[in-house]
Amino acid sequence: MMVTVNGKRVETSAQSLEELIAEQALSDQRIATALNGQFVAADARVGTRLKDGDKVEIVSPRQGG
Predict the structure, then answer these.
(1) Whole-angstrom Cα distance, residue 38 to residue 65?
(2) Which CATH number fits domain 2-59: 1.10.357.140, 3.40.630.10, 3.10.20.30, 3.30.470.20?
């Protein structure tokens, strides 16, 4: 299926948000996620199913100032 991750179209076989994060090699990082504009908590990612055309945002905190 095709989903959009941070503005880029990506083909994926992931069925859940958690699987997509693993596919993107981000499992070991502290990140925040949103699916179609709605925040998804870390413990809810495994049960958050993806559909063709979904829009996913994955962001990591940054230091600086």
Answers:
(1) 27
(2) 3.10.20.30
CA 65 vs CA 5, 19, 55: distances in Å: 27, 33, 29
C-alpha dihedral sign at 16, 21, 7, 39: positive
- Of the two residues 65 and 54, the one the predictor is more confident about is 54
pTM over 0.85: yes
For residue 35, the tally of other CB atoms under 10 A from its CB is 20
What value does the mean pLDDT of the chain take?
A: 95
Check residue 18 and give left, alpha or beta (phi > 0: left; psi -120 to 50: alpha). alpha
- What's the confidence (pLDDT) of residue 65? 60
